[in-house]
Amino acid sequence: MRDKVFNILFCGTGGQGILTAAEIVSLAAVYDGYHTKKSEVHGMAQRGGSVESHVRFGKLVYSPLIEEGSADFLVSFHKGEHDRMKRCLCANGVDLFASFEEAEKNMTNKKFINTHMLGVLSKNLNIRAESWLKALEAGFKGKFIEENRKIFLEAVSKG
Question: For 39-95, what is each residue's pLDDT tens digit?
Fold first, then answer.
């Protein structure tokens, strides 16, 4: 499994924590010993425009970009962006949009949905828990570390 290259595509709109989530996955993969590449597209993100980030990790990765039809995981934070980027998912790919919709409906503090989605995603990846927690500490500062750790672990523990 460590020889496989994992392709994870994050998408949504500006201000949803997409770039932070992608950075944390990348850091967790690096801490776990994977070769990792990441790319971001966020032209008008501060005005609610489209944001996408490609994360690839494995034994050896040459390009940061995920080709259409080759994403193993699609992590969408917006219905319109989900519909637009769904074409990037491979035939056996995992679409986590239902998990996002459930989190959006049930979580009281929407600022932590990206961390919840990382917990959901982590259950599908061969990255050790300590690497995830170390990446969360690097990605969130100060008082937000403990809250994000709690949200992440709750998402991991749910079936």
Answer: 998 776 667 789 999 999 999 999 999 999 999 999 999 999 999 999 999 999 999
- Beta strand 89-95 with 6-13 is unpaired
Longest distance between any two alpha carbons in the chain, whole Å = 41
Let me know: does 134 contact 113? Beta carbons within 8 Å: no
Q: What is the pLDDT of residue 45?
A: 63
pLDDT of 93-127, one tens digit each? 999 999 999 999 999 999 999 999 999 999 999 99
Name the percent of the chain lying above pLDDT 70.
Answer: 96
Distances (CA, A) of 54 to 4, 104, 117, 130, 153: 16, 22, 15, 23, 24
